[in-house]
Design brief:
Blueprint (H helix, E strand, L loop, with lengths): L1 H16 L7 E6 L7 E8 L2 E5 L2 E3 L7 E6 L2 E5 L4 E5 L1 E6 L5 E8 L5 E4 L1 E7 L2 E9 H13 L5 H17 L11 E2 L15 H9 L3 E4 L10 E2 L9 H4 L22 E7 H10 L23 E4 L2 E4 H7 L7 E6 L2 E7 L7 E2 H9 L4 H8 L4 E4 L12 H6 L1
Parallel strand pairs: 1-13, 15-21
Antiparallel strand pairs: 1-12, 2-5, 2-9, 3-4, 3-8, 5-6, 6-7, 8-11, 9-10, 11-12, 14-22, 16-20, 17-18, 19-20
Helix pairs in contact: 2-3, 2-4, 3-4, 3-8, 3-9
This protein binds zinc ion (ZN) (2 copies).
One zinc ion (ZN) binds next to loops.
């Protein structure tokens, strides 16, 4: 009995006293989706100290470093000399702004530019690369990758708050591997520092620390997609868990944008075979007209003679741009007339871009797409949900 009371007290204390402290820097795994076995590092600006295992390497700031994997070590060379073999190499910037470039040579990938520090470790016959980067430098890089270089600053502000919310929500996603987030689509796409539009950095700094919270003061799952086609999707139609702030809303802002509409033609005979795989009974001939399907607003399923197929599954199986489509029979073909691009849940990027261009502010944009949310500084949110076991309390 005493033990139970102690557990409850500790849990309650944790839930009340802890707020989210904003980390100054994050550890991001770079080129995470590729197995890098050699690369070139070029300092761009700033001065660097290079730590290789326990020794410090003195190099001129403009020296280019070549790293390649050799079993469980890293071979390190400059243009004219061999530096040595090490397990771990860290390049640490000592100026206020330090910029460097990384160009993987095996496999041959495009060069990217980063700020902060970077460490290289020989791991499982590949080079693990970790960027130790300031939070908002990372956010700006993600906003540029996810939002493109040509949008309005209010769009960038809303995208920065979304990416920051995702970052805090997922900050422990790769803890067991020794870093916070990876740079691939598994986490958030990050292709290095933002360089293409100064408004991206301005938008990130002017919203620094802000995140989106639900009514219980927790970071939301800040889902977004390219274009909703005029109506966003309920999260429960796409994922197992539905969220009260990710509910379907009408969106008139995106319907004239680039990804508002799509079309695809599929053979009616192929569609017949597909439905039969789901157990549908389809006549041997003259079946095309029976496949007609009209989706005025978003539906959850396609129904054919009592066989129901989730639209999200049809989208996946046929590689469609969205699950928001109608089917128009045309002789032996079926014309799929679709709206939008992506899963449709949460913020519609093209609609948000249109709202920004029409004079709406980031708060209007975020509150249009996410229902009953607040935009708050991260350090005012709770880390832990109260974890009081009510049954346990009753038994006391
Ligand atoms: Zn990841
Ligand atoms: Zn939309």
């Amino acid at each position: 009995m005493i033990k139970k009371s102690i557990i409850i007290t500790i849990t309650v204390l944790l839930s009340i006293s802890c707020v989210f402290a904003q980390p100054e820097k994050l550890n991001i795994a770079l080129f995470f989706e590729s197995s890098i076995s050699s690369l070139v590092i070029t300092p761009d600006s700033g001065s660097y100290v290079i730590f290789a295992d326990s020794s410090i390497i003195k190099l001129n700031n403009r020296d280019i470093l070549y790293l390649s994997i050799d079993k469980d070590s890293l071979n390190v060379k400059t243009l004219d000399k061999v530096v040595g073999k090490f397990k771990h190499v860290k390049i640490s910037g000592i100026d206020k702004i330090n910029i460097f470039k990384i160009k993987p040579s095996d496999p041959d990938l495009a060069q990217r530019t980063y700020t902060g520090d970077v460490s290289f470790t020989a791991k499982y016959s590949k080079i693990e690369i970790i960027n130790h980067v300031k939070l908002d430098d990372y956010i700006a890089g993600v906003v540029e990758t996810e939002g493109g270089p040509k949008a309005h600053i209010e769009f960038y502000r809303s995208q920065a708050i979304i990416c920051r919310t995702y970052t805090f929500e997922n900050i422990e996603k790769h803890t067991f591997e020794g870093f916070n987030l990876c740079d691939g689509v598994h986490c958030q796409a990050y292709k290095g520092r933002s360089t293409k539009n100064p408004q991206i950095i301005e938008a990130t700094i002017s919203t620094s620390g802000l995140v989106i919270s639900d009514t219980s003061k927790k970071c939301i799952t800040a889902a977004f997609h390219s274009n909703c086609g005029g109506r966003t999707e309920n999260s429960g139609n796409v994922w197992l868990n539905s969220k009260p702030y990710l509910v379907s809303i009408d969106d008139t802002f995106c319907t004239n944008r680039r990804s508002a509409k799509w079309e695809k033609t599929i053979l009616a005979s192929e569609w017949k075979q597909y439905l039969e795989r789901y157990g549908a009974k389809v006549p041997e001939s003259n079946y095309s007209a029976s496949f007609a399907f009209n989706q005025h607003s978003r539906a959850k399923e396609y129904t054919y003679n009592n066989v129901k197929i989730l639209l999200k599954d049809i989208r996946y199986d046929w590689k469609l741009r969205s699950s928001f489509f109608s089917i128009v029979p045309q002789g032996d073909n079926l014309l799929f007339k679709g709206r939008g691009y992506g899963h449709g849940v949460g913020l519609c990027q093209e609609g948000a871009m249109q709202m920004a261009e029409s004079g709406f502010k980031y708060k209007d944009i975020i509150k249009h797409y996410y229902t009953n949310v607040e935009i708050l500084p991260i350090d005012s949110l709770k880390v832990f949900e109260p974890k009081i076991d009510l049954d346990l309390l009753k038994s006391e």
